[in-house]
Amino acid sequence: MTNRDSKTKSNTVGTQSYDAVLIGAGFAGMYALLRLREMGISVRLYEGASGVGGTWWWNRYPGARVDFPSAPYYSYSFSQELLDEFDWKERQPSQAEVLTYLDFVADRLELRPDIQLETWIESATFDEKSSRWHIETSRGESISAQFLISAMGTLSEANKPAIPGIDDFTGELLHTGRWPAEEVKFAGKRVGVIGTGSSGIQSIPMIAREAGHLSVFQRTPQYSIPAGNRPVKPEELAEARESFAQRKEFMAVSPLGMPYPMSEKSALDDPPEVRNALYEELWQDGGLHMLFNSYNDLLVNKEANDTLCEFIRGKIRSTVKDPATVEKLLPDYILATKRQAIDDGYFETYNRDNVTLVDLRDDPIERITADGIITKSGEHKLDMLVLATGYDAITGKLLRLNPTGRDGVDLASAWKERFYTYLGVTIPGFPNLFMVHGPQSPSVLYNMPYGGEMESDWIRDCIAHVRDNNLASIEAAPGVEDEWAEHVEEAAKQTLFHGTDSWYSGANIEGKHRQFIVHLGGPEYFKHLREIAENDYQGFVVEEANEAPNSELSSAG
Ligand code: N01
Fold this sequence. Notes:
This protein is α/β, with parallel strands linked by helices. The chain has 2 domains: about 15-50 and about 110-155 and about 395-555, FAD/NAD(P)-binding domain (3-Layer(bba) Sandwich), CATH 3.50.50.60; about 165-385, no CATH class. It is about 30% helix and about 20% strand. The chain is built from 17 helices and 21 strands. The chain has helices spanning about 25-40, 55-60, 80-85, 95-110, 200-210, 235-240, 245-255, 270-285, 290-295, 300-320, 325-330, 345-350, 395-400, 410-415, 450-470, 480-495, 525-535, and strands spanning about 10, 15-25, 45, 115, 120-125, 130-135, 140-150, 170-175, 190-195, 215-220, 225, 340-345, 355-360, 365-370, 370-375, 380, 385, 435, 470-475, 540-545, 555. The strands form 5 sheets. Strands 1, 2, 3, 4, 5, 6, 7 and 18 form an 8-stranded mixed sheet that branches. A hairpin with a 4-residue loop joins β5 and β6 (about 130-135). Residues about 1-10 and about 550-555 have low confidence and may be disordered. It binds 3-acetylpyridine adenine dinucleotide. 3-acetylpyridine adenine dinucleotide (N01) binds near residues 339 and 388.
């Protein structure tokens, strides 16, 4: 059964039927909706929030903004019209500006009629008889779809740490990744922030400006680079619009999908004074591109990496006045192997009289009480506690949904020993299920809107292949996951990422597999995806539409 003619949903005994169901209305989900809709199939996108935007809907914490000097490049790359019609205002757009852009896109492309908001997908089970997914929503709807596509986001399952007493806190308890839409007032309050990753580093200076007192609870000090945000000049926007085609060509071959030239020089090629002068120039300009425009070996050569670590430690020493606070703030891990943060006055914030830094390595949290945090050295009374404690990244949302695939095996059981996928887009044993930005795809270490477009295009083509060939299902062949895991691991081993505990490798979540789940291949990855498709979906098996349910699977390639 292919539902080839079902352009609109049909109701059969209370079950809605679609060709494809998408989950998540962020950058990737909205783009995938557009592409699937263009195929002429029936598709419905479900989103739990009350607006589109995905991560940009939820991350409304003060200071949230894009971390690349990216306007207009942190945006869709497929449409000159979208670029021409939206006037980006800041070089590193704020959360509010990105959300305005995504609302504009949803309207401009008339996506909203096919998006159902305030609806969580609660279960998804593959029915082997019909080769369709049966899906239940938080609104009590029952849905049948041939294809299920997750665009649920990589940083969407908030991590609420299991600190003793956390549920006893009676003040305001907020998580940066689930920030309320209503204004949050800090004025005159005793605020605590746990966590100094990107979200903590962006929000701490903003909260400090308003709060009566701010206590920062830091477990790992971070290297942070000034954001260098500023308004986008009209001539910059005009230039970006004119050079759209060339820029896309450049992005297609750039290791991170970014329209910036990479340095071709090692950090060890320059004498220290030349190197530091370059670092200083990039530091003054600001932005994450400092990591790529300076030297080409900061992520692969520890000695090279050390040079920028020492430069940033020097900046911290010269910025923060209190020597004891400086000591607490000096990072000592391999730079950029935890997600590199950028900031707007982060280190300067520790010169304020209303800010205290608690170093949890020396003074760990013992428990949270109704009105504060008790650390080894004493009590910190709080009216408000902000958890900037990150996410169960990349796999968290998929495991929360926990779809059930072939033979009644659910994802949690399948992934009990390790995370595995084929190409980061499919999972053996889960026919007709696709993921955008799944584990073992480039996801968070690539230009995400651009990468999401390319993965969605691949998924659309794969779905077209199934339909054009009158197939019931397609799935990764048993065993291909091992080769893919080796491939991902091999790429990571060429870099310094292995030397650090980070959310890239699951180290931030207790009990999570310690496995590096980001594919570092960039353009090579996308080339590989295309080759798999051109090679008649090598590594996949398909089921004919009229096959008996348990008949042997035939090879797709
Ligand atoms: O989360 P994180 P995030 N007790 O996991 C600490 C993206 N992003 O929300 O490092 C005490 O990085 C934890 O300490 P440690 C970006 O990709 C992008 O900040 O594990 N502390 C760490 O300090 C980013 O990487 C932007 O020792 C605890 C912090 O909480 C990703 O989102 C902006 C703790 C968590 O840092 C996640 O960033 C913001 C505990 N029990 C985010 N548990 C842009 O600019 C955790 N911590 C685009």
